[in-house]
Amino acid sequence: MMVAVEQSLFEAAGGSDAMLALARAWHRRCLDDPLASHPFTHGDLHPQHVERLAAYWSEAIGGPPTYTTTMGEHAEVMRIHGCNGPHPELDARTVELFALALDDVAVPEPARGALAAYFDEMVARMAAYDEADADAAAPLVHWSWDGPDDAARG
Fold first, then answer.
1. Is residue 1, in this structure, part of any structural domain at all?
2. Of 116, 97, 95, 94, which Cα lies nearest the Cα of 13?
């Protein structure tokens, strides 16, 4: 279903400040959750993980290309988060915690629904990513009001 809006999803969600608040809220919820905290216990978390996460999400939903121009590549994100074998319970829990984090920072509709769909899709894509994909180019998935928007970005 097409959503008739003139703002980008990034703008409607509240811009950089809102994405940083969302990354902080989701990260805190994950750390506090017995199941979702597991990936954060390996000691190899980047010191600016939350800021990098906010930049990554921002770029994916129409914000500035800060992540890919100054921090890293989407393929690196996929290699870090994929290739870990199936973990459907963890995946489902991180999606639930993302929805709660959207509430924590009061992301308004319809941006809230579009962001939830984006996160759910990215978790599914990371779950499907395996060792055979590890050397393949993986461009950042750009997300618009109606889902993946890679054709429009080139």
1. no
2. 116
Q: What does the block give as tokens for 111? A: 């941006």
Q: What is the tally of structural domains in the chain?
A: 1
Phi, psi of 143 (to 5 degrees): -125, 130
65-118, pLDDT tens digit by residue?
998 888 877 667 666 656 565 678 998 999 999 999 999 999 999 999 999 999
* CB 70 within 8 Å of CB 60: no
Task: State how beta strands 147-148 and 143-144 pair.
Answer: antiparallel
Q: Which domain holds residue 62?
A: 9-153
Q: What CATH number does residue 98 fall under?
A: 1.10.490.10
Query: How far is 9 from 91, CA to CA, in rounded Å?
Result: 24
Pairwise CA distance, residues 37 & 141, whole Å? 25
Q: In this structure, is residue 3 part of a structural domain?
A: no
Q: What is the pTM of this model?
A: 0.85
